[in-house]
Design brief:
Helix content is 84%, strand content 0%. By secondary structure, the protein is mostly helical. The radius of gyration is 16 Å and the shape is elongated.
Length: 173
């Protein structure tokens, strides 16, 4: 199951870390779309976990993912509205959607402990990748101070998610 997560991680990292020159860095509109898309996709994965999992710890984790990612996405939407910025679709956000669709299809075929383990392992890999992209590319590339601050707040929350997912994964193995 990790192999698909690893592929998704590689695509996200390649797409987000590819810029070499300042002129190639993602724009604030692209960054907003990438961040919103990543959060939205994690919400969808968590909603699937809430439908499929019977494990109380996995369900609690999934509920946290829905709550926290929705809160950050709501703040992101309010910010782009305030700034008059239209989030811009881009290769990174498109790649995230494509890989998430494949992972969702894979997870939908699983049940019980197989589902729980695959879902949580994917959450570990996904958060590591997104957090790395936030640290190395998205936050440093953001020009708007409010966007940068929101991304930094998101990184703190999502680092906690990654640690929670790693702990949960250790209990499922």
């Amino acid at each position: 199951m990790i192999e698909i997560s690893g592929v998704a991680a590689a695509i996200v990292l390649a797409a987000v870390t590819a810029p070499v020159h300042a002129a190639d860095k993602p724009s604030d509109a692209q960054i907003a779309h990438i961040a919103y898309t990543a959060g939205d996709l994690d919400i969808k994965a968590a909603q699937l976990a809430l439908k499929k999992s019977k494990n109380a710890d996995v369900r609690a984790f999934a509920s946290d993912m829905v709550r926290d990612h929705q809160a950050v996405n709501d703040k992101a939407l309010a910010l782009v509205k305030k700034l008059g910025v239209t989030p811009e679709d881009n290769d990174t956000s498109k790649g995230l959607v494509e890989q998430s669709g494949e992972k969702q299809a894979e997870l939908a075929k699983l049940s019980g402990q197989d589902f729980d383990k695959s879902y949580v392992d994917n959450e570990v890999a996904y958060h590591k990748t997104v957090n790395g992209a936030l640290q190395s590319t998205l936050i440093p590339s953001a020009d708007n101070g409010e966007l940068k601050s929101l991304l930094q707040t998101g990184l703190k929350i999502f680092t906690g998610h990654m640690e929670h997912a790693e702990h949960l994964a250790s209990t499922l193995h």
